[in-house]
Design brief:
The complex is a heterodimer. Chain A is α+β, with helices and mostly antiparallel strands. Chain A is about 15% helix and about 45% strand. In chain A, strand 21 (about 325-330) and strand 22 form a beta hairpin. In chain A, helix 3 packs across helix 6 (about 150-165). Helices cover about 60% and strands about 15% of the residues of chain B. In chain B, helix 2 (about 60-70) packs across helix 4. Classes of the chains: A alpha+beta, B alpha+beta. At the A-B interface, strand 1 and helix 6 of A face helix 2, helix 4, helix 5 and strand 3 of B. Strand 1 of chain A pairs parallel with strand 3 of chain B.
Chain lengths: ~450, ~160
């Protein structure tokens, strides 16, 4: 009898387990479409409006900041800013408490609102990021600065929103240094120029009397190294962007190429030709001691450090054709990593450390591509008549490079422009510059 | 040689003879086997249905739900790969698929310092579920799916 009762009990228990076991479903795919986001104009009261007209000659600085944010998010390719004409709620009310159903109606998934105050020559900007579908605030921050910094505030807001919604650091509060080019192809005037990453606030840093080449940012500061010719001899310079102070690092023999900072900013690495043979050298910026890193009869150029300082990538023709190599930062353990068809050059290690960007020449076409640091997973992102010199955004997601157009025998029709492309290879855009431009280098984030 | 040939013929004949004699029996046996197999199949299908009633959606029901959620989930593609790219959500649903209760099973992690990337992923999951509300649930068997767990796994997509 006891056995029967036990049996009935077990059956009853099992049936309960069956009835209440939960269904589990694995969701392993999602969509990669840009996230629909509404960027409401930042509210500005009448008093601040008067002050901004007086001080900045801008009537509605709140709207202007929202346009900076909107443009940044759009160019990233990861967001789809919705048309402001569709917004149903006024900026001041939305900033206090959005009517989430109104924003959901226009298919927004996130909303940025804000308020701008300009008083006593101080600009105060508050902003909030809202999750429309969850109906809650995700972030609220405020910044105070001088009024002329209003575009930077827009970039900082963009970085904060980008990081909160994508999970990676942004790259909007950054600058790009490049070589500005003007005049006929045979008599180009080349100046160093710097601008915000969105093409605004261009400043020229040299007068164009001397040829300037390959400016590169220090990853840890607003210092730049570049190459210039003085009395036909190559010189490596250091330039402090903030103070305008410039110094000569040294004169180097023969052909000198592409000085670049180490990730800690303490050294520069470059190639120059000693006794007719190009090898890779470093210079300690504190004691100015030069150290030879490669010693090979082939041409070794374009060195770039890994972000942990442990390795260097460079290109060399030691195999008979120009290919990409990786070695330890003391010059040992040299390994070839590119094995595809064509010539490979200008390797640059990603700030994330996972990829190396390069220029490839194959069958008369130039490609910008990326590969893993062991040479596997080569992906060509863009193809054109002539393009080279990729430089990474500080978050390692976007590359900026320059592209030249074909000219006729007289040099007519020639142009050089900056372009950017992200790692998907789909989001390719021309970066606006005041003049023709080449050799871009992307700074690290100005604010962290 | 001749002996061998004869032997072969005789064996063949013998075999044929045997077959003929046993045809009826074989046919009967076959019928029996078929019947048994049919019984087995019925049993299996019955048993499968039973299981599905209680702990699974049918493949087509599951596919319809997945297809709906795929379109709603905007994956934060900037997230670096890690084993943390899995968000588990427990849902309590109404018969029409409307979400009555949403519970993040790893909600503690969402507010843990250093887990901001997990929070970003969890936020995207919450948005996906809200966007897909009401879910495309089966028209019958409410008891079966009124509670369910969705495992949002971004590890494959973000390059493991």
């Amino acid at each position: 009898m006891v056995r029967i009762i036990n049996f009935v009990f077990i059956i009853f228990f099992l049936s309960l387990v069956k009835a209440y076991s939960l269904i589990e479903i694995d969701i392993t795919r999602g969509n990669l479409d840009p996230l629909p986001i509404a960027v409401s104009p930042l509210f500005q009261d009448d008093n601040s409006k008067k002050n901004s007209i007086n001080e900045l000659k801008i009537e509605n600085i709140g709207s202007e900041i929202s346009f900076v944010v909107e443009n940044n998010l759009k160019t990233s390719g990861l967001f789809n800013p919705l048309s402001k004409e569709a917004f149903l709620q006024k900026p001041d009310i939305a900033h206090l408490k959005p009517r989430f159903e109104d924003w959901a109606l226009i298919k927004a998934q996130a909303l940025i609102t804000g308020k701008v105050t300009l008083e006593n020559k101080k600009l105060k900007v508050e902003f909030r990021l809202w999750d429309i579908l969850a109906g809650r605030e995700m972030m609220a921050l405020a910044f105070t600065t001088v009024p002329t910094n209003w575009r930077r505030v827009g970039h900082i807001i963009s970085d904060k929103v980008y990081e909160r919604l994508t999970g990676e650091k942004g790259y909007f509060d950054t600058r790009i240094i490049y070589v500005s080019e003007e005049g006929a192809k045979t008599a180009r005037v080349k100046k160093l120029a710097i601008m915000d990453q969105d093409g605004f606030n261009t400043k020229y840093l040299t007068l164009g009397n001397e040829l300037v080449l390959t400016p590169r940012f220090n990853p840890t500061s607003q210092m730049v190294t570049y190459l210039s010719y003085f009395k036909n001899l190559p010189r490596v310079y250091l330039l402090d962007i903030e103070t305008g102070t410039q110094e000569v690092v040294g004169d180097f023999p023969g052909m000198t190429f592409a000085p670049r900072f180490s990730p800690d900013g303490k050294k520069i690495i470059m190639s120059f030709a000693k006794d007719g043979n190009s090898d890779i050298y470093t210079m300690d910026l504190e004691n100015r001691i030069v150290e030879r890193i490669t010693n090979h009869p082939s041409i070794d150029t374009s060195p770039s450090y890994s972000p942990d300082n442990q390795f260097i990538t460079f290109n060399s023709d030691r195999s008979g054709f120009q290919q990409i190599y990786v070695m330890k930062s003391d010059g040992s353990n040299v390994k070839r990593i590119s094995f595809g068809k064509g010539l490979y050059g200008t390797p640059v290690w990603s700030p994330r450390g996972d990829l190396i960007a390069f220029t490839k020449l194959h069958k008369g076409k130039f490609y910008i591509g990326v590969m893993r640091t062991d040479g596997s997973g080569e992906r060509l992102l863009t193809e054109n008549y002539y393009q080279e010199a990729p430089s990474w955004s500080p978050n390692g997601r976007v590359l900026i490079f320059y592209r030249e157009t074909k000219s006729n025998d007289k040099g007519e029709g020639f142009s050089a422009k900056l372009w950017s492309i992200d790692l998907t290879g789909y989001n390719e855009r021309q970066v606006q510059t005041e003049t023709d431009a080449s050799d871009p280098s992307w700074s690290s984030l100005l604010s962290n | 040689m001749d002996e061998k040939k004869v032997k072969q013929v005789s064996e063949f004949e013998k075999k044929e003879k045997l077959d003929l004699n046993e045809i009826a029996a074989l046919i009967d046996k076959k019928k029996e086997n078929l019947a048994e197999t049919k019984k087995e199949v019925d049993k299996i299908s019955q048993s499968t249905d039973e299981t599905m009633d209680y702990s699974k959606l049918t493949l087509s029901e599951e596919d319809a739900l997945k297809a709906q959620i795929f379109t709603c989930w905007s994956v934060p593609i900037g997230l670096p790969f890690s084993e943390d790219l899995l968000v588990r959500v427990k849902l309590q649903l109404k018969p029409d698929g409307t979400i009555e209760k949403l519970e993040m099973l790893d909600h503690v992690k969402m507010n843990t310092p250093g887990k901001e990337k997990f929070r970003t992923l969890a936020d995207s999951v919450r948005r996906a579920i809200q966007l897909c509300n009401p879910l495309k649930v089966p028209t019958s068997g409410y008891e079966r799916w009124k509670n369910m767990i969705l495992n949002f796994d971004a590890r494959d997509m973000l390059g493991g």
